[in-house]
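Title: Comparing notes on inverse folding

I've been comparing how different people in this forum approach sequence design from structure. To keep things fair, I'm posting one structure and asking everyone to reply with a full sequence. Here's the target:
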C-alpha cells in the first residue's frame, strides 16, 4: 500500500482538523445562552454610540481601554445588533488563537508541543466561553499569543514585517485590557535584552537600524493608548473617590495556592484531579524545556506567567479580581502542557513495540 504524501502527510492536515474542530466548538450554540450583564453593557450599549462619543466616553472613567469597544462598534455597524453578530469577532479571535498558537510553537522550534497545545485549546471550556461572548478576553488571548511569538522570534536581522507584527500585537495586548501592560512590558524587556546582546555580538550598523525600528514599534502603541492609560493611572492615584470598584486603600488580592488552582481550574478543568493532571503536564513540559537548554525562552515565559499575578497582588484592586484579568498568561500554560503531552506520547511510542512483543 502506498504511503500518504504531500498535504495528507504533513502537519497541515492535522492542524486544519484541530482548528476546524475548535471552530465548530466555538460556533456551536453561539448566541445561546444570552450574554451576561457586562456583555450587554460593553457590546450593545457602547456600540450604539457614534465612534467619537464612544472614544471620548471611555476617557471619562472606564475600566478598560478602547480596542474591544471599537471591534464591537464595527461589528454592530456591519452585522447589526443580534447576539450572534456581536459575538462573531470573539469567535474569529478565538479560532485565530488556535492558528497563532501553532505559529508561535513552530516558530520557536516546538512544533510537536504546539500541535498538542492546539488540541488542548480546541476544546478548552474557558477559551470556548470567552470566544462566544463580546468581551475583550478572546482578543487579549489572541494578541498575547501573537506577542509571545513576535518577541521570541524577533532578532536584529528581522525585517520590517516582523517588527510591524510585534508592534501590532503589542498594541492589541495593551488595547484589549489594562492588565495587558504587564505581559507587554515583559515582552518589551525581553526584546530589549536581545537587542543589548546583539549590540555586543553583531555589527553595530545592523543593530542600530534595528534599534531605531524597534523604538518606533514600541512608541507608537504607547502613544496611541496613552490617554486611556493616563486616566486609569490617575484614577488609581486619586484617593478621594472610587473608580468602578477600584480604591487605592483597598487590600490587595492575595496570590496564593487556592487562587492559582482557581485560575487553572478556569481553563476548563473543573475537578481537583484534572487540575493536578494539567499541572503535571505543565511541569513535564517545563522539564523538557530545561533539558533543551533554552534558558532564555524559559526565563521569558516564566516571567510572562508569574509577573501579572505579582502585579495584581500589589495593585489595590479590592475585591473584584477575576481570573480573566490575567488570561494573557494562559498561552504559556497551554504550550507547556502541550509539551508534557508530547513528551509522554513520545515515551509511549517507544514502549509500544516492547509491549506488543511476546
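Reply #1:
Here's my take.
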Amino acid at each position: 500500500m502506498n504511503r500518504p504524501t504531500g498535504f495528507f502527510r504533513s502537519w497541515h492536515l492535522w492542524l486544519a482538523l484541530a482548528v476546524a474542530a475548535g471552530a465548530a466548538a466555538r460556533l456551536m450554540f453561539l448566541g445561546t445562552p444570552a450574554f451576561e450583564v457586562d456583555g450587554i453593557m460593553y457590546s450593545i450599549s457602547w456600540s450604539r454610540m457614534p465612534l467619537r462619543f464612544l472614544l471620548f466616553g471611555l476617557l471619562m472613567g472606564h475600566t478598560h481601554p478602547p480596542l474591544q469597544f471599537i471591534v464591537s462598534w464595527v461589528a454592530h455597524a456591519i452585522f447589526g445588533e443580534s447576539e450572534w453578530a456581536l459575538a462573531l469577532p470573539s469567535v474569529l479571535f478565538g479560532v485565530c488563537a488556535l492558528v497563532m498558537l501553532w505559529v508561535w510553537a513552530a516558530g520557536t522550534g516546538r512544533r510537536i508541543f504546539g500541535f498538542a497545545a492546539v488540541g488542548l485549546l480546541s476544546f478548552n471550556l474557558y477559551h470556548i466561553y470567552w470566544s462566544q461572548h463580546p468581551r475583550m478576553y478572546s482578543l487579549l488571548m489572541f494578541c498575547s499569543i501573537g506577542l509571545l511569538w513576535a518577541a521570541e522570534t524577533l532578532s536584529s536581522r528581522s525585517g520590517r514585517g516582523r517588527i510591524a507584527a510585534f508592534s501590532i500585537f503589542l498594541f492589541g495586548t495593551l488595547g484589549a485590557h489594562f492588565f495587558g501592560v504587564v505581559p507587554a512590558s515583559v515582552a518589551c524587556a525581553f526584546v530589549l535584552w536581545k537587542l543589548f546582546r546583539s549590540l555586543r555580538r553583531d555589527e553595530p550598523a545592523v543593530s542600530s537600524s534595528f534599534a531605531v525600528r524597534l523604538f518606533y514599534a514600541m512608541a507608537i502603541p504607547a502613544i496611541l493608548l496613552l490617554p486611556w492609560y493616563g486616566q486609569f493611572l490617575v484614577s488609581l492615584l486619586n484617593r478621594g473617590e472610587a473608580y468602578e470598584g477600584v480604591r487605592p486603600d483597598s487590600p490587595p488580592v492575595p496570590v496564593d495556592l487556592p487562587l492559582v488552582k482557581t485560575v487553572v481550574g478556569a481553563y476548563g478543568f473543573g475537578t481537583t484531579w484534572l487540575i493536578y493532571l494539567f499541572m503535571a503536564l505543565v511541569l513535564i513540559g517545563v522539564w523538557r524545556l530545561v533539558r533543551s537548554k533554552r534558558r532564555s525562552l524559559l526565563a521569558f515565559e516564566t516571567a510572562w506567567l508569574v509577573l501579572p499575578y505579582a502585579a495584581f497582588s500589589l495593585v489595590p484592586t479590592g475585591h473584584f479580581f477575576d481570573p480573566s484579568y490575567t488570561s494573557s498568561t494562559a498561552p504559556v500554560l497551554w504550550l507547556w502542557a502541550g509539551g508534557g503531552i508530547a513528551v509522554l506520547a513520545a515515551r509511549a511510542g517507544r514502549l509500544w513495540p516492547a509491549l506488543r512483543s511476546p
